[in-house]
Fold these 4 entries.
Entry 1:
Amino acid sequence: MFYKDDWYAWSYDGVKLCHKPNLTAKFDVHLKQTIHTPVDDYYTELFRHATEIRDTIEGKFDLLFSGGIDSEIILRVYKDLGVPLNVYIFKYENNLNYKEYNQAIKVCDALNVPYKSIDFNLQKFFENDAYDIWTKCYASSSGWLPGMKMSEYLDNIPIMGETVPEWRKKEDGTWAFMLKERTKFWTMYQIAIGRKALTDWYGYTPKLILSHMELPRIDNLINNRIPGKLSTVSHKCIIHKDYWEDIDIRQKMTGFEGDMEPSLTSKPAYMIDFDNKYLKGQPPNPMFYYSKEEIKSLLCSY
C-alpha cells in the first residue's frame, strides 16, 4: 500500500508496515505532519488525489468494482479525469451478490465504461482457499477474504475502495474520526504475498480526509445538527450525489446477502461456519478516535 509522504503507518508489536503475524499481535497507528499548505474543497481534493496517484505510482490500475458507493466514486473520478482504468466485476453463484452486481453493471453501462465480469464460486473458495488466506492477515470477518482472492485474478495494480473517511458518534455524544485495524486487512494480505496494490485508495493523501470533514453535511453530523445519526456511513451516497446527480441512493450491502436484509449475519451458512470455527473469540479490532481538532493538529503544520 502507498501513502503520500508516509503520512500514515501502522505497526504490529512495534514493527511498522508488516502483515499481522498472529491473532494477539498489538496493532498501533502512526501519523505524521505532512500538510504544509491549506486544504481545498473536497471535490478539488478528490480529483487532485486521483491525479497524484496516477502521476506517482507507475503502472496500470485494475478496479475491483463491487457496486458499492466507495468503488463507484473511484470509477467516476477516473472516468471524469479520462484516466484509463480496467474494471472487474465479480459474480457469486446462487445470486448471492446480485444486488451489488446488478448495480455495478448499471453504473458501468450508464457511464459507458467497459468492464469484465468474472464468475466466482464462493463456496469452493471457502472450502479450498479461505483458511490459507486468513492466516496471512487474520481478518476479523470472513467477508474480507473473497476480495483478497479476487485481487489475484487481476494482472495490474489492484485498486480496492476501502473506505471513504468515516466519523462515528461516541457514547459521550461527541463525534470522532476513525482509523481502524480492520480496514487494513486487504493491505496485510497484499504485503504477505508481496503484491503492489492500492487497497486504501481514499487514504493515499491526508488532504482528502481533511477536506471531507469540512463538507457541510459532515459538519452538520459531527456537530449533532442531524438527530438520530450514529456514523457517516449512511451519508456517503448523499454526499457524493451533490457532485454526481445520477448516483443512486441505496442501502449498504454486505455482498453476500442474496435476498436477505444486509447485516453482519447476512451470509451463507458456510461463511458463518468459518466465522464460528476460526474467528469466534478473536480479540476485538482496535479503533483509534480523533476529534476534528486532534486530527488537524496531527496532520497539519500550519
Entry 2:
Amino acid sequence: MLKKIDTKTLIAESLIDLSYTRPIDKITVNDIIQNCGIGRQTFYYHFRTKFDLIHWFYMSSIDEIISIHKNQVPWVDMIAQTFIFQSNYKHFFRNAFIDQGHESLFNASHVHAINYYVACIQENAGESELIDNMRFAINLYSYGAICMGRDWLKSGAKESPVVLSRRLADSMPERMREYII
C-alpha cells in the first residue's frame, strides 16, 4: 500500500532528493517546487524560505524522536537515535550544516538544544529560573555537542551513533548531568 505523505514532507523530500545532485546553497525554491510538482504559493504557504524548510525538517524530526523516547529510554540512547536519524540523511545534513550564516541549521540546532536542556533541567529541578552558571554550562555544552555532531557528519559519520552519544554523555558538565542523564 502506498503511504500518503503530507505536503511539508513532500517538499522536504524534494530538497533532500536535489541535495544529492548539487550543494544545498545552489538549490532554489524554484528547483524544489519543480522537482515535487507543486506551485510556488504552496511552498510559501508552508515555509518562508529554503532555510525554514531545512529547519522544519530537522527540528520536527528531532522533536519526534525525543517525544517517542523521552522518559522511555536512557538519555544517551535517545541521543543515539538522533544521530541514527542524522546518519540516515548524512549527505543532506553534512551539506546543510556547512552554512554558518544567521539562518544556518547550525545556529538553529544550537538554540533548539539550549531550549531542550533548559526545559529538562527546569522540569527535573522544579525551578523556573536557572542560575547564570547553569545557563552558561548549557550554552557551552550545547554548542560543543552541535559542533561534534557537525564534525561527525563532515567526516562521513564513520563512528557509531552509540559511541558518539556515549562520548557526549561522558562530556556533559556535572551540574547538568544530575538533571539530564
Entry 3:
Amino acid sequence: MTTDQRFPSISVTDLEGRSLVFPGDIRASTMVAVVAFRRQHQALVDSWVPWLEDRQHTDPGFAFFEIPCLSMMWTPTRSFIDGGMAAAIKVPTILQRTMTYYGRLSRVTGPLGITDTRTITVLALDQVGAVLGRATGAFSPEEATALAARLDLGRGTTSSSGDPSQA
C-alpha cells in the first residue's frame, strides 16, 4: 500500500564522490531513506542503523540510505563538508549509502510532507520512491515493526518481526 507521496528526484553525491539521482538511480525492490537536516541528527540516524543493517542482511532486495539535506547556501563548502564526513567515516559501505543533497530544502520537505526539520524523517519507499510508511526521531521497536510491515506490503512479502531484538 502506497500513499500519493513520492520521494522527489534529487541530485545527490555519495561520500565516495559519485553523483546520483535519488531515488531513480537506486536498484532495490524496497528501501529506506533516513533524511536528516542538522549535524546533531547523526545520533538519531545511528539509532536506526542496527535495525536497517539487520534488514539489509536478511533481505537482499532492500537498501537504505542516509540523506543529509543541506541548504544551497552550503554548496560553496560542499567539498569541505563532504570531505570531512568521509574522512571521519572511512568505511566504504557507509560512504556509499550516505548521499548529501545541497539545494532548496523545500524541494525535499514539500513533496514529502516534512514539517519539522528539527528531527529526522525515516521513509520506507518502494522501488520507484513511493512512500510506503514513515517514522520520525530516534529508533523505536514499534516504529520499526510498522515500517517493516509497510516494506513487506510494498514488496508483497511478510517478515516475522521488525524488532532487531527478535531477530
Entry 4:
Amino acid sequence: MLLFLPVIIIGIILLWQGADFLIRGGQEIAKNLNVSPIVIAITVMALGTSLPEFVVRVLSASSGNTDIALGNSIGSNIANIGLVLGFSVLCLGSVSMDRHMLSKEVPFMIAAPVVLFFLGLDGMLDRLDGIILIAISALFHLVLIKRVREGKFRRMIEDIGETVIQKEKRYLFHVLAIVLGLAGLILGAKLAIDGALGIALTLRIPTLIIGLTLVTFGTSLPELATSLMAAKRRQGEVSLGNVVGSNILDIFLILGVTLAIVPIPIPRSVLIFDVPVMTVFALLLFLVLLKYGKLRRREAVVLLALYAAYVGYSFLK
C-alpha cells in the first residue's frame, strides 16, 4: 500500500502547479478583455477542472464500473460545496457573490440534483436522460452568453477582434499557460486517483463508496487546488465561480455526455439519500448567499462539518 503514496504526492504537486498556471492565465485574459474573472471561472476554469471527472466517468462506465461513475457525479457536487468551497472560505475569511450570479447561475446548480432525482425514478439513467441533461447545459450557456453580451461586456464583444489582433502574442502566452495548467490538473488528478483507488481496493471498500468519497476527492482536487490558489491570490470570486460552474457542468454536461455514451443504473439508496444530500448542500449555499451576500468562516466550518458527517456516514451505512 505504501507504493501508492508517492504517486499521490506527485499528483498533488502537479495539481498545485497546474492550478497556478490556470489562475494566472485566466486572470490575464480576463484583464485584457475587460471580462469579469468570475465569467472566466464559470466557463474556462470550471470546464477545465471538471475534465478529470469526465475522464473518470466515461472510462469507468464504459468498463462496467458504473457505480464509480455515478458516485463520482453525485459526490463531486457535494465535495465541491462542502470541502472545496468550505476550505477555500476558511483560508480567505469570506467570499462574496454578485447578485447576477446568484439569480442567474446558482438556480441551475440547485436544479441539477432535482432534475437528476426525477430522471432516476425509474432506476435507470439512459441515453434519453443524457440528451435532456445536455439540452439543459445548452440552455445554461445561452443564459451565460446573454449575460456576457449585456451591459459592460457589450463593448468587449464589439471590440474583441481588434483587441485580439493587437495583443496576439500576449494572448498566445496566456492561452499556453491555461493549456499547461489544465494538463497539469488532469495528469495530477489521474495520478492521485490511481493512488487512492489502489489503497481503497486493497482495503476492499465497495466501489460505490469509492466513487462517492475517495474517487470524488481525487477528481475534486483540481477544483480544490484552483480554489486555494485563487484564495492565495485573493480572488474569492474565482473560487466561488469555479465551484458553481463545475457543479453545473458536472451534472448537466459531463454526466449528460457520459449517459449518451453508456447508460447507468441508479440504486434506490442513492436516489433517496445521496441525491437529497446534494440538494441540501446546494440550497444551503444559496440561502446563505441570499441572506448575507457572502460566505464567512463560520459558514465554512458548518459546510466542512456537514461534508465530514456525510463521508463518515457513507462508510458506515
